[in-house]
Amino acid sequence: MIKVGLTFDLKADYLRLGYTNEQVAEFDSPETIDALENAITSLGFEVTRIGNIFSLVNFLNAGKRCDLVFNICEGMFGIAREAQVPCLLDAYQIPYVFSEPDILNLTLDKGLTKLMVQQAGILTANFKIISKLTELQNIGIPFPLFVKPVAEGTSKGIDGFSLVNNQQQLTESVDYLLKTFHQPVLVESFLPGREFTVGITGSGDDAKAIGTLEIVLNEQAPHPIYSYSVKKDWEKYASYRIANDPVALKCAEMAVDVWKMIKGKDAGRVDFRLDIHGEPNFIEVNPLAGLNPTYSDLPILARLIGITYIQLISEIINSALKRSGLKDKR
Questions:
Q1: How far apart are CA 216 and CA 194, in angstroms?
Q2: C-beta of residue 271 within 8 angstroms of C-beta of residue 210
Q3: What distance in Å separates the CA atoms of residue 290 and residue 301, rounded to the nearest whole number?
Q4: Closest-CA residue to 163 (of 130, 141, 189, 133)
Q5: What is the C-alpha separation between 325 and 135, in angstroms, rounded?
Q6: 3-98 maps to which CATH number?
Q7: What secondary structure letter does DSSP report for 151?
């Protein structure tokens, strides 16, 4: 039987250390870990809960090993934080689920990813990376603008203040983000149209779009942004539906192109929003998508198209087994 180690960051572990709810927004709940363990076990694997990177270090130092790691660690510090566990596993030559360190490092830096996508001819909003306030004097992009930290997830640092309509608002919002998140700020043209996320499974030539999920904000939403505060109360402010119209299908095609270009592995999501002309613009790619069975976008998408949570996890693991050469040993 193949032994699968489960690495993860629990919110509660970091809250006990004094971090805020927003700082640990990307981390997981016991519900997610329970669901993953149950799904992987039901597929015929032996599961060992390892925990975060510090627990993984202790696990490896004790001489313990597993055949494959199902890694959902987000990490805490630095733009390369999502790459820390995969780097460690590479050093010990232990295969793992999801993308390699270079991919995780690239995609967490939204500016670098947008630059790469732009150079490949894929439409993305005009943008600049701001490291200090003086760089805002000649921004050169018409208002309204949208601002967010360059390397956060789960909409951390995105809220009502992210949509700015004049220079004063821009300066105030960027100043707040620079001081709060201690990293550069992405400033880009605001995209006012529909918002989509495309679910991807597989790697390389096996990569495919399983569906396109449209995120619809209702009239009670405090602003036209899928923000941190909206996501916290998603049942109150947002609804989700599978989109199959021509624009959604175009998003799916573009998502597969992006996924193959960055060499994404096993599963992830690619996000788009329509500009004033109704054209899909790339927002970002998430190669380490959330897997809570209830409220994470990828499981929601899968559920709406008839793919069970266990089937989704099975697709992810089978992709990793094929890449690692473990498939024949199962």
A1: 8
A2: no
A3: 12
A4: 189
A5: 49
A6: 3.40.50
A7: T
Query: CB neighbours of 173 closer than 8 A, spacing ≥ 6?
Result: 147, 161, 162, 164
> Is 192-324 a CATH 3.30.470.20 domain?
yes
Read off the pLDDT of residues 178-191 as tens digits, 9 standing for 90 and up. 999 999 999 999 99
Backbone angles phi, psi at 97, to 5 degrees: -85, 145
Whether the pLDDT of residue 203 is over 80: the answer is yes
The residues spanned by each domain of the chain are: 3-98, 126-189, 192-324
Residue pointed to by tokens 């096996």:
206
Beta bridge partners of 149: 185
**CATH 3.40.50.2300 is held by the domain 126-189:** no
Task: Give the integer Cα–Cα distance in Å for 11 and 259.
Answer: 29
DSSP 85-115: HHHHHHHTT--BSS--HHHHHHHHSHHHHHH
List, in sequence order, every residue forming a beta bridge with 217; answer none if it has no partner.
238
Sign for the CA dihedral angle at 241, 247, 250, 256 comes to: negative
Position 194 scores a pLDDT of: 97
pLDDT band at 329 (very low <50, low <70, confident <90, very high): low
Across the range 205-234, mean pLDDT stands at: 91
Three-state secondary structure call for residue 150: coil
Q: From CA 195, how far away is CA 230, in angstroms rounded?
A: 14
| Six token digits for residue 327 | 């498939």
Q: List, for residues 250-309, the tens digit of each pLDDT value.
A: 999 999 999 999 999 999 999 999 999 999 999 999 999 999 999 999 999 999 999 999
Three-class SS state of 66: coil
Two tokens, residue 322 = 């094929």
Q: Is the pTM of this model over 0.85?
A: yes
Which residues are within 8 A (CB) of 58 and not within 5 positions of it... i.e. 6 or more apart? none
195 forms beta bridges with 215, 273
